[in-house]
Amino acid sequence: MDIATVVDLGHQALWMTVLISAPLLGIALAVGLLIGVIQAATSINESTLSFIPKVAALAITLAIAGGWQLGLLVDFTRSLFHRIPTIFY
After folding, report:
1. At what angle do helices 47-87 and 3-42 cross, to 10 degrees?
2. Residue 61: CB partners within 8 Å, gap ≥ 6?
3. Residues 67, 70, 76, 82: what is their CA dihedral angle, to the nearest 10 degrees?
4. Stretch 37-46: mean pLDDT, rounded?
5. Looking at residue 46, what is its pLDDT?
6. Which DSSP letter does residue 89 get?
7. I need a surface site. Which of 31, 57, 69, 83 has the fewest CB within 10 A?
8. The predicted structure's pLDDT at residue 85
9. Closest by CA position to 16, among listed 71, 64, 58
């Protein structure tokens, strides 16, 4: 197995991680920032106030983007399985 192949597989795996996690992390950041601004403006320091909207937004985002994320992961896994014969020979 060539070192360049290992580095390429690692690069692809990290890129898949970024692509799959980006929608959820972006929505969680945006909702958390919005709720934080609202809490700062109204001086309400309730921890559940930021938790419940984040969970709801993440559930909606996962319902919308979950199929795309799963398809991306399945395609990546298939490409890995197709590369197995070329890696060891």
Report:
1. 170
2. 23, 24, 27
3. -100
4. 88
5. 82
6. -
7. 83
8. 86
9. 71
The tally of domains found in the chain comes to 1
Find the length of the chain: 89
How confident is the model over 54-76, as pLDDT tens digits?
A: 999 999 999 999 999 999 999 99
Structural domain for 27, as ranges: 3-87
Distance CA(40)–CA(79), nearest Å, equals 48
Largest CA distance in the chain: 65
pLDDT at 89: 64
Give me 41's structure tokens.
Answer: 């403006």
In angstroms, the CA 31 to CA 47 distance is: 14
